[in-house]
Amino acid sequence: MEIPLRGDRQPARVADVLELLERHHGPFVWRSRADPVSELIQTVLSQNTSDVNSGRAFACLKATFPTWEAVANADTQKLAAAIQTGGLGRIKAPRIQAILRSLEEQRGSFDLSFLRETPLAEAKKWLRSLPGVGPKTAACVLLFSLGLPALPVDTHVYRVARRLGLIPQKASPDAAHDILESIVPAKDIYRFHMGLIAHGRQVC
Question: Can 136 be counted among the known catalytic residues?
Fold first, then answer.
């Protein structure tokens, strides 16, 4: 699908992109996918693997361990075995446990619902202070679980946004988060993200 744009003004370009993406791939309506901690752990499991594999790994993790406390305190090798279908189990298992232990130490629980009432910049900073949590993982938790206007930049969003001239060719994926959030209206961030994901997977 060609995406004809009206000019170089970024707001007009974003509006064109949204209109055409929804016409071909949408509509995209937000609904919470999971509670924040589940979204956080699922996002860690999704790194460097397919959605199918990470979904299987998360299902196995939940079937093996009844609570997040049990995951945090589990034998690391047993946890790695439970999530092996998602790939990189030996790397992801200690990372997941470090995140959960940090949550328990800082908050006394695994409840992240407080982030919904936290200013967005502070919520991002807090999540990124957790072990191994970068801008994409933080944005996934905030957008998909809490409905906040944080824009995850995965490989599809990064690639398509560069091809459309929405971000500089030399911008890093980390920088792309801030650039795209500055030009996409907050109310449109979910639609924009989902549209670029769909276009990246199906077309380019």
Answer: yes
